[in-house]
Amino acid sequence: MMPRHMDTLLLVVDEGSFEAAADRLGVSPSAVSQRIKALEADVGRVVVRRTSPVGVTDAGEVLVQTARRMRLLESETDDRLRGRIGERPVSVGVNADSLGTWFRPVLRQVAEVGGISLELNLEDEQHSLAMLRRGDCMGVVTAEAEPVAGCVVEELGSLHYWPVGAPELADELEAARSVRGEDAWASLPLLVIGPHDRMTDGVLEPRGVTPRPGRRVSRIPSFEGLNDAVVAGLGWTLVPVASARPYVEEGAMVRLAEDVIEVPLYWQHWRLESDTLGVLTDAVHAAAAVGLSA
User: Fold this and answer.
1) Is 147 in the same domain as 275?
2) In this structure, are 208 and 286 located in the same domain?
3) CATH number at residue 274
4) pLDDT of residue 272
5) CA 144 to chain centre
6) Phi, psi of 41 (to 5 degrees)
7) Which pLDDT value is given to residue 238?
C-alpha cells in the first residue's frame, strides 16, 4: 500500500467526495479515482462506497484508522526530531455528561503539558465507538466494554444519575401516580440531550412503563442547557448526581424517585505507542479517579 494512496483515501473520506479531494490535491477526480482503485487492488477489497457523501466499507474503516495512526506517528517523529511534543490535534470522543463533570480536569492537565490541541467530538456514550472504528478519534469515553479491533479498553469507573424534575413537575407526577400508579411516568414531559439518548429507559423499564405516543420530548443539546431546562420545568431527565445535588439542596430540582442509575464508563483508545496518546490517557485516568465512582 503506497502512502500516497492512503493519504488520498483520508482526503476522500474527510472531504466527502472524489471531486473535493481532487481539489485539495490539485489533481483531477479521475486521478483520485485511480489511486483509490489501486489501493483496492492492493488489499483485494472495495474500501470506498461511491455514495454522496462517500462512505467506507469495513475494510475501508480499517485502512482509515491505520492511515490516521500513520499520520500521528509521522507527526510525532518529526516533533521529536525538533524537540517538541506533538502539535497535531488530538481527536477525542466524549459524552456531554462527562465533559460537563468529571472530564473537565483533563483539559487543564493537557494544557499544562503544552503543545497539544484537542478536538472534542460530543457523542452519546452508547454510540461513541463508531467514531473509533472509523478512525475519526484516537480515543473515546464509552459505555461499551468490548474492545474495537486494534484498540485497548480500560475501565474508568461509573457515573451515577438521579431522575430529577422541577418541583411543579414532581407535584404533577405525584398527583398522577395517586390515580394511575407508575403509569403516570408514561406521559410525563421528557428531556433528552441528543437523538441517541435513551438513558431514562433505566427508570421506565423496571416499572413496566411504555412512553405514550405524543408525549412531549424536548431535545437540549447542551449539558448546562439541560440542567436549565429541568429547573425551568420543561421536563424530567437523568442528571449526574454531582451536578444535580446542589440544585436539589436549594430546591430548584426534586428527585422524582429514589433510583440511582449507574453507568459504567471505559476509555477505549488506539493500541499505539504514542507520546501524545500517553499524555491524554494519563489525564483521563487521573480525572476519572477523582470524579467517578469505583
Assistant:
1) yes
2) yes
3) 3.40.190.290
4) 79
5) 11
6) -70, -40
7) 97
Query: Same structural domain for residues 181 and 83?
Result: no
pLDDT score for 167: 98
Residues 6+ apart with CB under 8 A from 116: 85, 86, 87, 90, 110, 276, 279, 280
In 3D space, the residue among 276, 189, 269 whose CA is nearest the CA of residue 237 turns out to be 189
User: Reduced to 3 states, what is the DSSP secondary structure of residue 80?
Assistant: helix
Q: Are residues 210 and 119 in the same domain?
A: yes
The total number of structural domains that make up the chain: 2
Q: What is the pLDDT of residue 123?
A: 86
Angle at 194 between CA 249 and CA 210, to 5 degrees: 80
DSSP-H helix ranges across the chain: 3-15, 18-25, 29-43, 58-81, 96-99, 104-113, 129-134, 167-180, 201-204, 223-232, 241-250, 275-291
Judge if pTM exceeds 0.85.
no
Task: Say if residue 63 is in the same domain as residue 125.
Answer: no
Same domain, 195 and 125: yes
3-state DSSP call for residue 66?
helix
Q: How far apart are CA 53 and CA 141, in angstroms?
A: 27
- Tell me how crowded residue 28 is: count the other CB atoms within 10 A of its CB: 12
Q: Are residues 78 and 97 in the same domain?
A: no
CA dist 16 and 88 (Å) reads 21
**Domain span holding position 74:** 1-87
How would DSSP label each residue in 180-193? HGGGGGGGS-EEES
pLDDT at 196: 85
- Which residues are CB-contacts of 14 (< 8 A; sequence separation ≥ 6)? none
Tell me the Ramachandran region of residue 157: left when phi exceeds 0, alpha when psi lies from -120 to 50, beta otherwise: left
State whether 205 and 247 are in the same domain. yes
Q: What is residue 79's predicted lDDT score, i.e. its pLDDT?
A: 65
* DSSP H/E element including 159: strand 151-165
Segments in the chain below pLDDT 70: 1, 76-88
Q: How far is CA 123 from CA 10, 21, 42, 57, in A?
A: 22, 27, 34, 22
Whole-number pLDDT of residue 67: 82
